[in-house]
Amino acid sequence: MASEEPVFTDVSIGQTVYDESGEELGTVRGVDDAGFYVSAPTGTDPLALTDARDVFGTAYVMWRCWECGEMGEIGSELPENCPSCDAPREELYYWAED
Fold it and tell me: Which helix (H) or strand (E) holds 39?
């Protein structure tokens, strides 16, 4: 059985993205060299911070600022603002670090 080649498509911030079966993954929140990040659709169950995974297994869950790149450890939730550049909470996202 021949495997199919992946199809690459340009994505942009604000675009809704779907998996191969047509299920909504979420809305694109950011794009970088590693890929794109989505905000989960309304009504999805949140993952616990301890459920964060990377290709090697459990990773340290941190936050990262879109504005300045500052990173920090997460207690029980994201800080209200980036302590480095004062960007609002909406500019912070979860980051898995090994």
Answer: strand 35-39
Is 87 within the bounds of a domain? yes
pTM of model > 0.70: no
Averages of pLDDT over each 10 residues, the chain, 98 residues: 69 84 84 74 64 54 88 80 92 76
Q: Residue 2: inside a domain, yes or no?
A: no
Tokens of 20: 């191969």
Question: Considering the domain boundaries, does residue 75 fall inside one?
Answer: yes
**Beta 71-73 vs 57-58: how paired, if at all?**
unpaired
Judge whether 57 lies within some domain.
Answer: yes
Q: Which residue has the tokens 């905000």?
A: 39
